[in-house]
Design goal:
11 strands; alpha/beta; 246 residues; binds S-adenosylmethionine; single chain
Length: 246
């Protein structure tokens, strides 16, 4: 496996400790409830980039009969298998899904595609494994507002001082390895939003809905110094449907 996956292997525990089993308010208060809602009523569900399997477990708990979770990182798949919950887990990359055409009613990718280099192939694979009319629930760090080098600026040159949200270079596709906390390095790929929408459109994934929720209370409570934090979304959710030509 390539270097980007080596970084995930090395830091899988950072993800598991900080973002699963109730540790992260954005997951608990926002991401998992939205995911549960979007997967409701779908029987065969694929969780792409499943990590330690929290979204796959959620799909099973919500009533899906067959749930598969794939991830190229062995340390994630081993933990997902250990945590159980009724889904089947396998080691695979999003751009080479080990499944037959049209074998799922819904696919979900939760904060995964910003780590995938082969984005077109991965989106083609989503379209391939979905049945006509199937749903793709696509969760991203908001690509418009969470660009590299985005963040709050406290501008004391102005009188009175102002706080504003700086957006980094938006149109430039950019692979960076970010130190997300001391000694933890994770690869991120920034792309303009149009890059994802157009790849989906070309693959026959028709956009049905777009959600830009405000950060949830548990996150805002950690950022009280930024009064406008509730007006800057961190999450983007695209809901698409596989074209049905029958
Ligand atoms: C931020 S974690 C999200 C995990 C899970 N979706 C969740 O929401 O809990 C990103 C995951 O993407 C996986 N990943 C990285 N490159 C991938 C690829 N090419 N195909 C599929 N998954 C990949 C990583 O191993 C990691 O488990």
């Amino acid at each position: 496996m390539a270097d980007d996956i080596d970084l995930w292997e090395a830091h899988a525990d950072w993800w598991q400790d900080g973002f699963t089993e109730g540790a992260d308010p954005e997951y608990e208060e926002q991401i998992l409830p939205i995911a549960a809602n979007l997967l409701e009523g779908y029987d065969r569900v694929l969780d792409i980039g499943t990590g330690e399997g929290q979204v796959a477990r959620l799909a099973v708990a919500g009533g899906a009969r067959t749930v598969a979770g794939i991830d190229p990182t062995a340390n994630q798949v081993v933990e997902a298998t250990k945590r159980g919950g009724g889904a089947h887990f396998a080691r695979a990359r999003a751009d080479a899904l080990p499944f037959e055409d049209a074998s799922f009613d819904a696919a979900i990718a939760c904060l995964v595609f910003e780590h995938i280099e082969a984005v077109d192939d991965a989106i083609d694979e989503v379209a391939r494994v979905l049945r006509p009319g199937g749903r793709f629930a696509f969760f991203l760090n908001h690509p418009l507002l969470q660009t590299p080098n985005s963040g709050w600026i406290d501008d004391y040159m102005l009188d009175p001082p102002e706080q504003y949200w700086r957006i980094g270079p938006y149109l430039i596709e950019d692979l960076s390895v970010e130190e997300v906390e001391k000694d933890v390095f994770i690869p991120f790929i920034h792309r303009p939003l149009s890059r994802y929408i157009n790849a989906m459109s070309e693959a026959g994934l028709v956009l049905r809905r777009m959600m830009e929720p405000a950060p949830p209370p548990g996150f805002l409570a950690r950022a009280v110094e930024y009064q406008a934090a509730a007006s800057i979304p961190r999450l983007l959710v695209l809901v698409a449907e596989k074209e049905d030509h029958t």
